[in-house]
Batch of 3 targets.
Target 1
Amino acid sequence: PSVPIVAIVTEKKGVVFAPYNPVWKKQRKFSHSTLRHFGLGKHSLEPKIIEEFKYVKDEILKHGEEQFNPFPIIGNAVSNVICSMAFGRRFDYDDAEFKNMLNLISRVLEVSLNSQVLLVNICPWLYYLPFGPFREFRQSVLDITAFLKNIIRQHRESLDVQYPRDFIDMYLLHSDEEKKINGESSFNEDYLFFIIGDLFIAGTDTTSNTLLWSLLYMSLHPVT
């Protein structure tokens, strides 16, 4: 079933929340095969995960025996593995834009699940109210949009047909090829943005929480 707040934010595009139709099937098939090409679900992704774990270990060791919150470290690591496939690069944990985007994603999820914003699912027009959590939610979505669209723009400007670097490059090349053959294509930068958003918001939150629960369990039961 369609969830109003999700439908408004995603414009019914992407691969996670889009309606089942021929366009969705094409987008999902391409996304799945391309992500597998870059290692998703394969052993070839393992070196990237191991490489990122080195940064995680360094961050944890900085705290010594002091208590610390592992959430931002794990969130950074998971996001960087996704970045390596989608953007062809990782971000330093101290990168201001990267930290801001992760904070925005976390805040969007928190506000959408634990505030009056939930009422949008009953009265969709509430989404456009210019105050309170409604305004904060919209602004956070706009800021995330600006960050991701800037990444896509940078890829378009530096695109090399002979050497696609990552998911975004492959998507742009596929879009250009379809337009050249058919004159038009359902593959466009607008749809690409929502797919990248799906990868980050759905992938980062679920994987991070799974790892955090695993860390908690191992901390409470170190011998098991």
Note: The mean pLDDT is 88.
Target 2
Amino acid sequence: MADSPGFFHTPVMLNEVLETARLRPDSAVIDCTCGEGGHSAEFAARIPDGSLLCIDRDPAILEIARSRLTAYPNIIFANGVFDRIDEIVTQYNFPAADFILADLGISMFHLKEAGIGLSYTDTGSLDMRLGPDENISAERVVNTFKEQEIADIIYKYGEEFESRKIAHEIYRNRPFHNAADLADAVKRVKRHNKGRIHPATQTFQALRIFVNRELEVLEQFLPKALKVLKPGGRIVILSFHSLEDRIVKYFFRDAEKNEYGQILTKKPLTPSPEETRLNAASRSTKMRAFEKRI
């Protein structure tokens, strides 16, 4: 399954990322969420005399990137969660970075091919873990947690105002063993939802964030990333929902206030209308950038 995906994830806001990166042929770059290697392929082509560190928490998807990027010998592939960026840089003796990217979106591989329950139609799994390092699956959450705990998770991480009703529906109909059945349960609660967004979107987001500790990982990553960045180096974060964007916004604001550098995006950049037309998955992207003080 992991060896030959039928498609690659389209790198989001690629032009804006490359423009901000200002790569030189000898730049040292860290792609903290390599995925299938979409952004990394573009970086590698532009730094023939430089170094590229590709990090991903999922060893299967990292192998996809490795097979895709065989033409570039100057790449290090590291399996791990990106909040360990400082440890990984030390482990591989990687130089201070000129540019760091963290694309917080979910890859098409995980959505379409991995079979881990991120798709609303997945009948094979309700796992949602993006790598082997996490202990609690979404299946365990919905089948063993207390009703109030489930409601709190859905409200806190999904910003879902009908979290109590959804948690009650889950509690009284469990056990659930696949994503499709869980999505149907949420749809029963939100049956009057006629919008273009799937009624289970916020519930699935909440479970995925909780299971993978996504906000905690991001909060721990940001100060470490700033430390491994070279003076004058830049970091770009691509976020896809308000919880992530808020963390990045306030971290960059505080870093600028404490004279660690300057914010390059006073307001977050968003994809062009043309990009959202060609790649609907990019529509919620927000890009923030920061330059470390020289």
Note: The chain has two domains: 14-109+214-292, 135-212.
Target 3
Amino acid sequence: MAKLPSFLPHTSLPAVNGGVAIVTGASSGIGRATVAALAQLKASTHTGARSSTHTGAHSYAPDRIIGTSRNPDTITDPVDGVDYLPLDLADPASIDEFAASALRFGPPTVLVNNAGESQSGPLEELPDDALHRLFEINVLGQVGVTKKILPEMRQRGAGRIVMVGSMLGSFPLAYRSSYVASKAAIKGFAFAARREVRPYGVGISVVEPGSINTGLSARRTKYVDLDGPYGAEFTTMLKNLDNNEANGISAERVAEEILKPITAARPKPLYATGSMAPVVFPLSRVLPTAAMHWLINRKHGL
């Protein structure tokens, strides 16, 4: 495939349509909402009702949709029209097996790296094995899947890759250091790789949601000695975090944001939604870093 002119930073990328859309972590939350949104686009091709949702966008509808789960057999409410495949991001062999299976469905046009885990705790008390596992899943696993799918997109001259991050990757919060670092790391991979793949018609973007009401608080992994030196502050932070998420945006709203870089002719590096993102990001450009850190921690009772 001939390269696009690399000296033109605003060159439109080739539109993607058809092919296979892959969404990791599709059994619940943002992943499930995303495969549901893609399934609606797929169904609309049969009615002729396809339309873009924002200015400067093109229509997109996949021929096949693949969602992943560690154990697809346990999914109780699968989305119609979605093929579910097993994937454990902490297991390189699982990534290899998944990629081989997924590529048999047809050429991939879209990859949404959504699967991940959450983790909270003071840095001093985070177990080493828990840190390693978090980075295996939230960073190395996502990069591993991308490395398997990207060559197919590059060779065909078109593709969109979306990394689902978190606004905490841009605005760190105390007692979330490991999670913050993992989301900042995946954003770094994405931002650097954008320039590598753009000449081949592939776009990479990061979507950073703020507080999301997906019930994550009930399954959050916590590492803290509540009777130790950090216990009281950690409890305060967690109470405020859970309250913010209970009043956060829906997974469906995040899925709408994920569709934007997929359909955009010129995908932006970063998309953000929720937690007053349209205010917070511009504010961060004019306030000192220390002031932004104070505001974020203050919002969480610290």
Note: Residues 128-156 form the longest helix (29 residues).
